[in-house]
Every structure is written in structure tokens, then in C-alpha cells.
Amino acid sequence: MRKRVTTPVPKETAPPEPEWLDVAQLAQVEVTSEDLAYPIESALVPGEESGWRAALPGEQIIRLVFDRPQRLSRMWLLFIEPDTTRTQEFVLRWSPDGGRSFREILRQQWNFGPPETIREAEDYRVDLAGVTALELAIVAHLLLVVFEFVTPHVTRDTATALGLMVRGPLRVPFWCALALGNALPLGLLLVTSNGLLVLPACVLVVLFALVSEHVWLRAPQLIPLS
Description:
- This protein is of the alpha+beta class.
- Helices cover about 30% and strands about 30% of the residues.
- The longest helix has 24 residues, at about 200-220.
- It is globular.
């Protein structure tokens, strides 16, 4: 007689942890920017705790392009903001055709208020088949930029950098970028339905986005080290 002695499973045994996808083996990662000290793999590889941080201001996009279509059942996101009071909006999308078109999964806003509220954790259950690309867009809006400057900041260096942009030597390019690269294009699109104004509005956004990036990168460099 063939037999096997098995150990009974305790009733209180917790369910096993889900098997997360091995992104390093299954996908290519595309990202708009990354801080050299906080690369994107720090947010995707198990065991890494430092996380990812953008190197440039503005909208950030992280996209996973899978080698083969995948079935997704769960997505987990963690955002940490220990320094600045701000409102963040992110959009999660997926593509069935290699990134040629995207379908929105969800759109979420969250208010960070350090030191009390510094973490946003989201755990989503989904049922998506044939996923060829997954995209996370962290969206920036004009109102959020204004909100950034009228709320108090936790660190002195952050407040100093903002002062250099608003009232200091960088005030001219900063306010020009805000007015001509944000407010004016938005006003053109809101007050008229003339399609001919779309192209000038887009040109203004692109040109002054470059100016804005220069200002945001230059301001921390002007802060004295001692």
C-alpha cells in the first residue's frame, strides 16, 4: 500500500502573499526623469527602500512596457512627501496595443500635510488581461503650483529656494513662465473655441516649460551651503 503522512493545515494560517511580477525580467521601464540618488529601480525592485524621486519639476510619467502581454490582478502604490504641503493627482492607465492607445484605470487626488500626513498608500484589485503597457502619470496643474507657494514649508532650504524664485533674482523668469506658459495658454483655450489658437498655446507651454525647468534647477544652487 502506498501512503503519505501529511501535516494538517492550522485553521489560523494566513493566506500566502501574492506573487508580484518580476518587472526586471518582464518589462522595460520608461521614466521622464529620475534623481541619481533615487533611481526608478529603487521603487520597483523588491528589497529596495529608498524609492524613486524625479529630478525635474512638472508632470512625471512612469511606464512599464511588457515583453509579453500580462494579466494584472493587483496594483500597490506608495507615495511619501515628508517636506512640502501640497496636493497631488495621479492617473493610472493601461494599454492593450503596446502603448499606441491607453485606457484609464483610475484618477486619484491626495493632500499631503507634513508632518502629520506624509504617506499615501493605495492597494487596487483589478482584472486586466492582455496588458502590454502600464503607465502612472503624476499630474501637475497651475492651481497646484500656486498652492505650492502660498502654503508653509517644513524645511528652511525649501522656503529659501521658493523665495529666490518669487521675490529674488529668479523672479522675472519664474513669473514670466507662470504667466506666459500657464495662465495665458489656459486663457486662450478657455475664452475661445478657435482651433487656430491651439498651436500658439502649445508653443507657449513648451517654450516656457524650458524656462520653468531652468528656474527650478537653478534656485537650489543659489542657496549658501553654510
